[in-house]
Amino acid sequence: MKKAVKEYVLITLGIFLVAVGIYYFLVPSDLAAGGVSGLAIVINKFFPAIPVGLLMLGMNIVLFIIAFIVIGSNFGAKTIYSSLGLSAMIWCLERIYPISQPIVDDLLLQLLFGILISGIGMGIVFNQNASTGGTDIIAKIINKFFHIDIGKSLLLSDFLITLAAGLTFGPKIGMYALLGVVINGLVIDNVIQGLNVCKQVTIISEKSEEIKKYIIEELGRGVTIYDGRGAYTGEKKEVLMTIISRKEFIRLREYIKELDKRAFISVSNVHEVLGEGFTEIE
User: Fold this and answer.
1) For 151, 173, 207, 280, which has the most beta carbons within 10 A of its beta carbon?
2) What is the CATH number of the domain that holds 230?
3) Which domain does 201 fall in, by range?
4) What is the pLDDT of residues 34-72, one digit of tens each?
5) Where located (predicted)?
6) What b/e sequence results for 129-146 when a residue is b if at least 16 CB atoms lie within 10 Å of its CB, and e otherwise?
């Protein structure tokens, strides 16, 4: 229960950031950088009386109905919550603190800040095994009927939306929107990697028994032991290997520093760890 609450809190934070990035930076500059939000920006140009948030909400509901009929019930509660929640949150921002013109006159700044804020939010949402829906659903429908890979279908749907932006708002806006799609993907990937990064630590020490005990009892992590032999001395050594979080690594490093200043420690970043004690394999 506690884990589920934490996941939904993080998803809510993520969709709030996405909503802020879209509504306060992308919408005022007509930057339709893919997704249902981009399509809503294009439609809003022709029907300005209908708010972007309401358009997104309506399109997401329609897409979910189509997806359930065409694809099947392969959409989890978290995806439904985040996609409909994002639409509702943008609609609320339009009501609570509306904005009618860009914050700054620089189109590139509007694009970069909008993509950066919304990309961080999307990364948080995706990291909780959820999705903001929209384009993902369109991509799956394209895949179902035209047998195009999901990745290519996703790129195709985003490209078609940015193409519509170019035809609606002019080639300059269209090119900026396409640039936004590319940057958005890079931001999301880096956020997910940053959130999941752990440290793989290899330790060779005369005090391996004490270090092993500290890792298991104090850090609550597992240790793998290898039998090693020094090439120069021929002396047999125990090699300890563990995967821990960044905070745990700082604690372990300080402990080893006090225990054995001659210890050999090798550290590398691991961008994703699945299994007991980390992210569950789903």
Assistant:
1) 173
2) 3.30.70.120
3) 197-270
4) 778 888 888 888 888 888 888 888 888 887 787 777 766
5) Cell membrane
6) ebbbbbbbbbbbbbbeee
Q: Is 197 within 8 Å of 43 (Cβ atoms)? A: no
* Closest alpha carbon to 138 in 151, 154, 114: 154
CA–CA separation, 140 vs 133, rounded Å?
11
Indicate whether 166 and 72 sit together in one domain.
yes
Q: Does the residue 282 lie in any domain?
A: no
Domain presence at residue 275: no
State how far the Cα of 25 lies from the Cα of 22, in Å rounded to an integer. Answer: 6
Which residue type does 214 have? Answer: Y
Looking at 195, 224, 245, the residue that finishes a domain is 195
Residue 46 lies in a domain: yes
Question: What rounded mean pLDDT belongs to the chain?
Answer: 84
Q: Rounded to the nearest 5 degrees, what angle is found at the Cα of 162, between the Cα atoms of 160 and 166?
A: 110
Q: Token match 């225990």: residue?
A: 259
Judgement on whether residues 219 and 244 belong to the same structural domain of the protein: yes
Sheet holding 198-204, edge to edge: 224-229, 236-244, 198-204, 264-270
Tell whether 277 is covered by a domain: no
Highest mean pLDDT among 26-40, 179-193, 257-271: 257-271
What integer pLDDT is reported at residue 226 of this predicted model? 92
Domain edge (last residue) among 173, 195, 217? 195
Query: For residue 149, what are the CA distances in angstroms to 33, 184, 186?
Result: 21, 20, 20
76-135 pLDDT tens trace: 678 788 888 888 898 899 889 888 788 888 989 999 999 899 889 988 888 787 777 677
Q: How far apart are CA 21 and CA 99, in angstroms?
A: 13
Q: Tokens at residue 68, please? A: 């359930």
**Total tally of structural domains belonging to the chain:** 2
Closest among 207, 237, 25 to 121, alpha carbons compared: 25
